[in-house]
């Protein structure tokens, strides 16, 4: 029979951590076997990654569906040709050989002759585009497909003709080493940070081993999921960035707590169990918050965005599972030898102020983080004002945010799609890189009467050519079955310029409705550029919904965990402020061009349409990571002695070092991906890296403690009726 003096029964997390620590070899073996099985399965059956901007119900998607249904199936990609001197017609024999080679390739439906195809040859005859029609998007092909392309066009290159591959075909030639280099830099920086921050060699290695194994398993699982889910091509890189960052962080928090508990526990396995029972709960809440924020991207109603969030969420979930099982297993294997090898005196968590009679001034004098907490406590208004002014200043550029698509013209000159873009610009004008396709669905009267169809085609062609912003318009031609009229409009501006977007809306909202009024026909504007601009418009309209869903869900989670409406509201507002600052930095660097060339971005570009939405979900989730760990420790001390000032000081001091090191590791992981050749990845890397730095310094070390000092006991106010309604989730196992 249990008496009041009996120790409490260990919870599930406590028992799980202790079990893993006592069976370290078994747990490690199971993880290695699972990793090997997932990797083998991915190699044998794994899917591919390609961008799919399909938006059912939009003009661009409807037009594309009509083309596919009436004789133009598949995906078209251009091979760009350029002679150093003289017309391409002088290279007729090698051109015929190259066309025959292209048509013979697997998955190729046709390759148009540029000397006879309308609009495919420049005015001087030196530049041409070969429209190659594939059964499906060539970006999903294995990179080895590129070798077949090179063999097909070899006769032209041998005859002195330059051959480049435009998007999406050029994606097959994307360099593969940059992301691997970024991963190695991130890991190398993590090693240095952990060694300097904590001193212990073993304590440095455990989070890294856990993080790397978790990422490897998560990536293999993602590859298997790609067989049935359409993931964007940025999905693997995003998954590595997220998985490696949070994986190392979660294992670090557990390892640090274990080392703080170890001196007072005779059994190292029991210390590991207690670490999982306390910080492990915070890991669960943090991972759930990140995954919830990423899942909120499905509220956009755009499968492309939702799947990118799901891809990152997969590695976050696997990283949390790895941290909660593999970390205690490794800690159990090393036992008390966790600090046996060190480069300097090992450091665990900062000392906490307890109600044991020891003066706070003595502890604060011995620990710099207590001294910092005391400084903030003495000047909360000054600290709050300084932090808000700094973040507010960084938010200013975000007011000029312009969404768009980063085209191939912003890629490095080493990329074949950039060279193809430049050749097309020089030969045809910048607008030729973003041509718009106009599709008119005919009624029976026009489809069956050639004279009426020709009359409509003439009127339509004149109207399209006269539309402001159009450089030229091809004559509308009937589809093979006569059900459609199809024309190509070449903008006078490049694909990512605002004028091209204005032209698209002018065609959709003005030219086509007026020209086709009373004819019984319907017009649509489609093509790659039209689809990208439609994608941008849809995301811009739905971004507020994503913000509301993610912020609302995070508010409810924090309210349930910390039983405080004040803390939940404060966390949401401060996170919104730090995200706005990160947006501002991205706008200043990429859209304004301040320092963009240092990052390998040739010219100012708009912010990629889906980057703000992705950044918001990821940054909000990661911000909640540090919020949960900091507030969990503050609440632990508050429940111990009900002194708000001491609780804030002790919580900040005991977590500042580990949060700082964790943030530095995650920042290094993100910023290392600035080496990527993909401008959108650079954009995400800079935004995420800056947001983590701001969150771990200005927000966690300045704004959170300053506001909590100022609010005092109001931090912990909770209406009784609301307390009864909410379920109880306790991240640190300290509920009273």
UniProtKB/TrEMBL annotation:
It is a multi-pass membrane protein. InterPro entries: MMPL_dom, Mycobact_MmpL. The keyword Transcription regulation does not apply. Keywords: Cell membrane, Membrane, Transmembrane, Transmembrane helix. PANTHER family: MEMBRANE PROTEIN MJ1562-RELATED, MEMBRANE PROTEIN SCO6666-RELATED. The chain crosses the membrane at residues 184-203, 208-228, 234-253, 282-305, 311-335, 381-401, 543-562, 574-594, 614-634, 655-675, 681-703. Its main location: membrane. It is found in: Cell membrane. Belongs to the resistance-nodulation-cell division (RND) (TC 2.A.6) family. MmpL subfamily. Gene3D superfamilies: Multidrug efflux transporter AcrB transmembrane domain. It comes from the Bacteria. Residues 74-380, 477-718 form the Membrane transport protein MMPL domain. This is MMPL family transporter. It comes from Kitasatospora cinereorecta.
